């Protein structure tokens, strides 16, 4: 009412009445038709996706209901129960493992070189005490035959040889020619420490049991060669694990960071540095990585030769076939 009175009082007759009444001219109506059509499409699309979302929720509810019906059968399955308990056990161990890795003792043991020296000294003393003859060993020909000791001895040796063959000729080559190079590097970064730790422990067990049943005073040339080979394999694997594997892991991490920044490393079965082939820092890191990796590979082949030598000795002593 106020607006109308103002217009009437001021005598503004030339103003279009449609401005006040809200009427739309035919031309403007034609211009607004495409907008209305577009809005109708949006509404239809919205209704369509809402309907699909409701169907998806309904389907998920049906699947959850079916799982609830199957759950009693799963709980009664021995395999499912054992898997559940195993997952709980692994989570429990992982929890304490994370706590251990965050402790100060872990940082001292694994981020400094002093613990590696202590472990190496302890290993040398352990092997030396087993090899040096004592008064008890000089009088007898050795400990009597023990089926348990023989079982542990053969088990450790077989596991050692099997791990070497699998890691060197099966796992390494298969994954290198089947996975992207960065994925292969991540896998090797996890497997390398475990592989050499396990091999060193198995070599020590095999050596100690063999020396226990073959005292120094009973050695001949054949047994002396076996003891030297097993001792060399043990110390070489321990040396690789303590002093060569940590630098290799650091170099792998540095390479992955540089290559991911440059957008390379997804190739399979080959190495392509891409734009990094002109980077001096990357070339230095890659050269150091190659040098350490080749040294570890050569050490692994030497330990495998020692293991095969002992396999030949065991094969000559077997009377099964």
Give your account of this protein's structure.
It is a single chain. With 321 residues, the protein is mostly helical. The protein has a domain at 133-317. The protein has helices spanning 2-10, 18-21, 26-75, 78-101, 104-110, 114-131, 135-139, 147-176, 181-213, 221-262, 280-317. The protein is elongated, with a radius of gyration of 37 Å.
Low-confidence stretches: 1-32
Number of β-strand runs: 0
Radius of gyration (CA) equals 37 Å
Helical amount among residues, as a percent range?
A: over 70%
- With helices defined by DSSP (H or I, 4 residues minimum), what is the helix count? 11
Integer average pLDDT:
79
Give the oligomeric state.
single chain
The SSE order reads: HHHHHHHHHHH
Short description:
The chain has 321 residues and is an all-alpha fold. The chain contains eleven helices and no strands.
Q: Would you spell out the secondary-structure blueprint of this structure?
A:
Elements: H1 2-10, H2 18-21, H3 26-75, H4 78-101, H5 104-110, H6 114-131, H7 135-139, H8 147-176, H9 181-213, H10 221-262, H11 280-317
Helix pairs in contact: 6-10, 8-9, 8-11, 9-10, 10-11
């Amino acid at each position: 009412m106020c607006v109308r009175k103002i217009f009437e009082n001021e005598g503004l007759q030339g103003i279009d009445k449609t401005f006040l009444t809200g009427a739309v001219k035919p031309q403007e109506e034609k211009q607004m038709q495409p907008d209305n059509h577009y809005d109708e499409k949006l509404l239809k699309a919205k209704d369509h996706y809402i309907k699909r979302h409701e169907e998806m929720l309904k389907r998920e509810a049906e699947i959850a209901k079916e799982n609830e019906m199957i759950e009693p059968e799963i709980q009664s399955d021995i395999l499912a129960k054992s898997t559940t308990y195993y997952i709980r056990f692994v989570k429990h161990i992982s929890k304490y493992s994370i706590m251990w890795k965050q402790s100060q003792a872990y940082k001292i043991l694994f981020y400094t070189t002093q613990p590696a020296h202590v472990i190496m000294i302890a290993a040398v003393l352990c092997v030396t005490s087993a090899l040096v003859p004592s008064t008890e060993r000089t009088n007898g020909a050795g400990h009597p035959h023990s089926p348990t000791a023989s079982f542990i001895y053969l088990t450790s040796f077989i596991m050692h040889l099997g791990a070497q063959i699998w890691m060197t000729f099966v796992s390494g080559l298969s994954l290198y020619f089947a996975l992207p190079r960065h994925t292969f590097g991540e896998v090797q970064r996890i497997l390398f420490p475990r592989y050499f730790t396990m091999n060193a422990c198995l070599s020590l067990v095999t050596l100690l049991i063999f020396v226990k049943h073959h005292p120094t005073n009973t050695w001949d040339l054949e047994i002396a060669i076996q003891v030297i080979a097993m001792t060399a394999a043990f110390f070489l694997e321990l040396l690789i694990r303590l002093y060569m594997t940590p630098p290799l892991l650091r170099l792998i991490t540095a390479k992955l960071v540089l290559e991911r920044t440059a957008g390379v490393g997804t190739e399979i079965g080959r190495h392509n540095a891409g734009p990094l082939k002109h980077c001096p820092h990357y070339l230095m890191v890659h050269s150091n990585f190659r040098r350490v990796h080749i040294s570890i590979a050569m050490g692994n082949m030497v330990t495998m030769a020692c293991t095969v030598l002992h396999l030949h000795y065991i094969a000559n002593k077997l009377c099964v076939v």
